[in-house]
Amino acid sequence: MRFLQQLFTIFMKDLRLEWRTREAMSAMLLFALLVLVIFNFAFNPDREMVLAIGPGILWVAFTFAGVLGLNRAFASEQENGCLSGVLLTPMDRGAIYLGKWLANLCFTLIAEAILLPFFVLFFNLSLTTEIPPLLLVCLLGTIGFTAVGTLLAAISANTRLREVMLPVLLFPIIVPVIIGAVQSTGLILNHETEGLTSFIRMLALYDVIFLVTSTLLFDFVLEE
Amino acid sequence: MSPDKFLDFLFAGYAAFWTILFGYLGMIFSRQRRLMREIEDLRQELTGRKG
Amino acid sequence: MRLERLHTAANVATAIAWGAIVWALYMVFHFVPMERTMGNVQRIFYFHVPSAMVSFLAFFICFLASLAYLFTRRRGLDIAAQASAEIGVVFCSVVLITGPIWAKPIWGIWWTWDARLTTTLVLWLIYVAYLMLRAYLPEGSRKANLAAVVGILGFLDVPVVYMSIRWWRTQHPAPVIMGGKGSGLAPPMSQTLRVCMIAMLCLFIALLLRRIVVELLQDEVDHLYREADVAPPERG
To answer: Which residue of C has its CA nearest to A201?
Structure first.
C-alpha cells in the first residue's frame, strides 16, 4: 500500500511539473508532427504506399518524440538537484522508477493520441473497426519503449552529451518493440489478422520482461 | 564455376581479420607503453620529492 | 604482485595464441580440402564462425561480470566487464565484415536481414553504445554501476531481438539463399573448425588478459597522480 502511495506521489509530482510548463509535451508534439510532414515530403506516398510505409512512419514519429520526452524526465531532476532531494526521502527505489515511468508513459500516450488523428488525416486513412486493436498496439509498444527508456534516461542523464547518449543506448534495445509495433500496425491497417496475435503477444512479453528488470536494476542506478 | 574464382574475396576476408586484429593490438600495446612510461616518470618524481 | 603475475599470464597467453593461430592457418589453408560447391572462398568460414562464437562468449562474460559486480562491487569485475565488451566488439566487427565478404560470392548479395545477421548487428550496436557510455560517464563509483546496468540490460535483450526477428521474417517468404545450413560438415572440415575455435578462444583469452593489464596500469597511473597531488592530463 505504501509502495503504491509513493509511486503515486512521484507520478503526480511529474505531472504537476509538466503541467506548469508543458515543455516536454509541446516539444514532443511539434517534433512528431514534423516527422510526419517530413516523411510525407520524403516519400510522397500514394494510397498503396501509405499502407506499406505508414506504420513505419508512425512509429518513427512516436519513438523519436518519446526520446525527447524521456530526455527531459531526468534532465530537469539533474539540473536542480531534485533527484538528491527525492533520494533523501525514505522512498522505495522501485516506486520512484515506476512513478517516473508512469508519468513518461502518460505524456507519450497523450502525445500519441493527439498525433494519431493527424496521421489519419495526412495519409487519408479511414479507420473504424481498426481503432481498438490499433490503440492496444500503441499502448503495448509505448509501454515497452518507455519502460527501458526511463531506466536508460536515468543513466544517460549522468553523462556529457546526454541528449545523444539516450537514443544511442535506447534504439538497439527497443528493436523488438519497433518490429512488433510496426508489423502489427501494418497488419491492422491492411485488415489482416494472421500473425497479429503473435506480434501482440511478443510486445506484451517484452513489456513484462523489461518492466520487471528495469524496476530491479533502477536501484543500482540511483545509488551513490 | 572454377574453385579459385573468388580468391580475391577470400583474400579480402582474411585481410579484414588481420587488419582489425593488428589495429586493436596496436592500440592496446601503444597504450600499455605510454602508461608504463607514465608510471616510471611518476615514481621518479615521487622518490625525488621525498629525498 | 597481482599486476606482475597478470602481466606474465598475458605474455604466456599471447604466445600460446600465436601458436594456435599458426596451427589454425595450417589447417585452413593446407589440411582441409576445398569445399566442392563454394570453392576456396569457403575458407573464410573457418575464421568467421569462431569469431562469432567468441564475440557471443565475450558479451556473455560481460553480462556475468556486470551482474557479479553489482553484488560484490569489486573493481576487478568492472574491469573484466569492460575488457570483455571491448574485445567482443572487436570480434563482432570481424564477423560483420567477413560475413558480407563471404556472402557476396556465395549468395550473390552482401547482406540479408535474416535473424542471425540482424541480431549480430544489433548486438554490435548495443555494445558499441555500452562502450560509448563508459567513455562519456564521469569517473567515480557510479560509473561502474551504471555501465553494469546497461551490460545486463543489453545482454537480456539479445534473445528477445533474435526471437522478434525470427517472427518478423517468417511473416515474409524466407530468402531461399539460406538453405542447407544444417546439412552437417565433413569430418576434416569439422576438425578444422574445432581447431580454429580453440585458436580464437586462445586469442580471446590473451587479448582479455592484456586489456585487463592495461586497465590496471591505468588505475596505477591514476593512483600515482593522486599521490603526487598532480592533476592528470586530459585523457584523449
So the answer is: C164
pLDDT at C146: 94
Judged by phi (left if over 0) then psi (alpha if -120 to 50, else beta), residue B13 lies in alpha
Cα A169 to Cα C152: distance, rounded to the nearest angstrom: 13
Cβ–Cβ gap C102/B13 under 8 Å: yes
Distance CA A66, CA A149 (A): 9
Name the residue of chain C whose CA is nearest to A156's CA: C133
Give the pLDDT score at C176.
43
**Cβ pair C225:B42 closer than 8 A:** yes
Q: Do B35 and C90 touch (CB under 8 A)?
A: no
Is-contact C230 B48, C-beta < 8 A?
Answer: no
Cα gap B41→C207, rounded to integer Å: 27
Question: For residue C154, which residues of chain A lie inside 8 Å, CB to CB?
Answer: 172-173
Quote the minimal CA–CA distance from B44 to chain C in Å.
Answer: 11
Give yes or no for B1 touching C (CB within 8 A): yes
CA distance B10 to chain C (A): 5
For A178, A206, C149, C212, the CA distances from A71, given in Å and listed in that order, are 19, 22, 18, 34
Which run of H or of E encompasses C97? helix C75-107
Please report the domains of chain C, with CATH numbers, ordered by start residue: 2-173+186-228 (1.20.120)
**Whole-number mean pLDDT of chain A?**
90
Phi, psi of C85 (to 5 degrees): -65, -40
Distances (CA, A) of C126 to C25, C165, C230: 31, 16, 36
CB atoms within 10 A of CB C29: 14
Supply the pLDDT for residue A124.
Answer: 83
Q: Measure the CA–CA gap between C157 and A175, rounded to whole angstroms.
A: 9
Element (H, E) at C159: helix C141-171
- CA distance linking residue A88 with residue A163, whole number of Å: 27
Look up the pTM and report it.
Answer: 0.91
